[in-house]
Design a protein that fits this description.
- The structure is a single chain.
- With 312 residues, this protein is mainly alpha-helical.
- Helices cover 83% and strands 1% of the residues.
- The chain has one domain: A middle domain of Talin 1, CATH 1.20.1420.30.
- The protein has a two-stranded antiparallel ribbon.
């Protein structure tokens, strides 16, 4: 085993440790904030936690745009949506389906997601790119989404308040945990890309699989820890919010900076699969106000088929 390969493995392990530490404490801080402010856990998961766990995707795409590789952003965004929903939500719902879901909080965010991704796909098919004007439109849409979260948060249910720690202290903890998640994911992504390139894997496949999986590890750890600790709503809110951030920021920022040229496979495969897996996750929850293990199994099967198709 060469020194470079050994170094890659060690950095990968370090990244995994940082992500596990950050994800564990991030969930505790998020739940404490929800209780202190008297808002549902799913709202905190869809806003504060999602922003923290989506930072790797945002920074990877923005950096790629500044370095002249903006094309990787769309694959990263759609790949992360698929990974978040089909692999992470599929895994968590298979392990422990949610018995009660606050559908009011889920419903409007799901509608926001489906409307945005469908419109983005149509624009991409018609123009073959996400230009700067469309990128700015995505950023404006994000501002609208953020405003609606603030305005409607108080009306989306109420949780018991708690005296454990102040909100400011918990926000600091959450920020530190988000930093741990970011650096941990960075180690994993950088070394994963190196290994993929050595294997001769194409750039799009690297974007929708290796980079998407690596930058989605914070969501994975957060969701699994949420289930273990009995806070499934945080994990579900994190997935929904992270998917919206992927659409609005991960694609919006690089598109506004340099524009994003699009491959046909991104528009005809990645985006439709993203819509499909979100429908499999969200529609039954909205109809039944709970999730099922069958949803999780179906999502994992779709993710397996998607990976097979990407590498075929």
């Amino acid at each position: 085993m060469t020194t470079n390969v050994l170094q890659t493995i060690l950095l990968f392990g370090l990244g995994l440790i940082l992500i596990c530490l950050g994800g564990d404490k991030l969930v505790d801080a998020a739940v404490a904030i929800a209780r202190k402010l008297g808002i549902p856990q799913i709202v905190v998961g869809a806003t504060i936690v999602s922003l923290g766990t989506t930072l790797p995707e945002i920074l990877v795409s923005a950096t790629a745009a500044f370095q002249g590789s903006a094309a990787i952003a769309a694959g990263n965004a759609f790949g992360s949506i698929i990974c978040n929903t089909a692999l992470i939500a599929g895994l968590t719902q298979t392990i422990r389906p949610m018995e009660r879901v606050e559908t009011k909080s889920v419903g409007w965010r799901a509608a926001f997601f489906f409307g945005t991704i469908a419109f983005a796909d149509i624009v991409g098919v018609l123009t073959g790119e996400f230009n700067r004007i469309f990128g700015i439109a995505l950023l404006v849409t994000f501002a609208v989404y953020a405003y609606l979260n603030i305005r409607w948060a108080s009306g989306e249910g109420e949780e018991e308040t708690s005296e454990e720690g102040g909100v400011l202290r918990q926000l600091v903890v959450l920020a530190v945990c988000a930093a741990l998640l970011y650096f941990g994911a960075n180690f994993l992504v950088d070394n994963g890309i190196l290994l993929a390139q050595l294997m001769g894997v194409p750039e799009r496949v690297i974007a929708v699989t290796f980079i998407a999986l690596g930058t989605s590890l914070p969501e994975l750890v957060t969701s699994v820890v949420s289930i273990i600790k009995g806070y499934g709503s945080v994990g579900l809110g994190n997935i929904i919010g992270a998917n919206l951030f992927n659409l609005l920021l991960v694609m919006g920022i690089p598109a506004a900076i340099a524009g994003i040229p699009l491959e046909q496979s991104t528009l005809l495969v990645d985006a439709p699969v993203g819509i499909l897996v979100m429908a499999v996750l969200i529609v039954p929850i909205l109809l039944r106000k709970k999730s099922s293990r069958l949803q999780g199994i179906l999502l994992l099967a779709i993710y397996g088929a998607y990976c097979w198709f990407s590498f075929a």
